[in-house]
């Protein structure tokens, strides 16, 4: 998928931009709207932008229905660092299902990446207290991301607590 950072130069006022979460129900609605718009506004480009990013099921569905030919598919990757009790499921609705049922730890990796970006903005967290059944996965992912991305901010934050317990 292409990044959206330069999309403003390619979208005209007659074009249509759908910014959606990567959920099947929403996608099917947009595909139906896109089909209707094809007959009304033939010259308009239709952009389909996934926030925070697409997943394999969504892209597979677009390919299977041939709807991918009707849209310019983009992705808008950004990091959410929300202040809330359940950090994981705020960005993605199905995070707990992905992690505990499907054994897909992508959300943990995304969270680790966002955390390292946080450290680059505000300073390295000296003491990270991580507890719960995903603590080791998160800790290893943070360590890898810190090494890969590097830390450029000389400031330091004393400590932070990460709780990955299921309630």
Work out the count of structural domains. Answer: 2
Largest sheet: 4 strands, parallel
Structural class call reads: alpha/beta
Strand order of the largest sheet: 1-4-3-2
Mean pLDDT equals 76
In whole angstroms, how far apart are the ends? Answer: 36 Å
Share of residues in strands: 15-25%
Cα-based radius of gyration, to the nearest Å: 19 Å
Features:
single chain, 167 residues, alpha/beta, 2 domains, 4-stranded parallel sheet, two-stranded parallel sheet, 6 helices, 6 strands, 41% helix, elongated
Description:
The protein has 167 residues and is α/β, with parallel strands linked by helices. It has 2 domains: 2-75, no CATH class; 87-164, no CATH class. 41% of the residues lie in helices and 20% in strands. It has helices spanning 24-40, 56-64, 87-91, 95-100, 106-122, 135-149; strands at 2-3, 16-20, 46-50, 72-75, 124-132, 156-164. A 4-stranded parallel sheet has the order 1-4-3-2, with helices on one face. The chain has a two-stranded parallel sheet with strand order 5-6. β5 (124-132), α6 (135-149) and β6 (156-164) form a beta-alpha-beta unit. The chain is elongated. The two termini are 36 Å apart. Mean pLDDT is 76; it is low at 1-5 and 82-86.
């Amino acid at each position: 998928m292409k990044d959206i950072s330069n999309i403003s130069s390619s979208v005209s006022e007659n074009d249509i931009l759908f910014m959606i979460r990567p959920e099947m129900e929403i996608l099917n609605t947009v595909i139906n709207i896109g089909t209707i718009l094809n007959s009304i506004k033939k010259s308009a480009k239709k952009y389909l932008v996934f926030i925070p990013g697409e997943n394999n099921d969504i892209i597979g569905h677009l390919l299977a229905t041939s709807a991918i030919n009707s849209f310019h598919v983009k992705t808008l990757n950004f990091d959410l660092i929300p202040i809330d009790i359940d950090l994981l499921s705020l960005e993605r609705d199905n995070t707990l299902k992905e992690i505990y049922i499907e054994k897909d730890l992508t959300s943990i990796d995304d969270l680790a990446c966002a955390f390292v970006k946080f450290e680059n903005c505000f300073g390295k967290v000296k003491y990270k207290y991580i507890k719960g059944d995903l603590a080791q996965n998160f800790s290893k992912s943070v360590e890898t991301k810190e090494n890969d991305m590097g830390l450029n901010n000389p400031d330091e934050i004393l400590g932070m607590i990460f709780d990955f317990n299921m309630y």
